[in-house]
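Consider a protein example.
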Amino acid sequence: MRKRADQVAQTRERIVEAAVHLHGTVGPAATTVAGIAAVAGVTRLTVYRHFPDEEAIFAACSAHWLSRRVPPNPSAWAQVADPAERLRVGLTDLYQFYRDGREMLTHVYRDMAVLPDTHRRTLEDRQELFHTLLAEPFPADQRIRAVIGHAISFWTWRSLCLDNGLSNAEAVELMSALADLGR
């Protein structure tokens, strides 16, 4: 019995790792159950025995990928009262997460429209939380909110750091200065 349970767990782990690999290389939109099965070395039926639908696969893939990362810590940002300092702390944390997960995040954000609804909403809700926490100590001004919304975007980070060669620190400094102009 123990050996069988270990084999089942190992098979499940291979399937999840295959999904993580494919989501991080071709993206969720191009990942198929057949592709996951091929990479994991199992049949499509075996994938479905472990995961009844794409939402279950995506949930397991996300949990596995996130378990190997240091996620942003918005509760730590909320402890910083000074608006400019909170923004710097939050962006530093967020940009490090983006850099560490850039391959996967590029594909996930690119494929947002095809993600399972619960996962897409979770990502959107998380971005809204980040936006709210970082904008909260600033005066209520649409320009500042717009700058902060732009600054927390993965695509902004990607453009500044990957496409244009800035370091995370330089990008944080630039986005903080832009927010300061709006005050």
The chain has two domains: 2-67, 74-181. Residues 91 and 117 are 27 Å apart (CA to CA). The two ends are 66 Å apart (CA to CA).
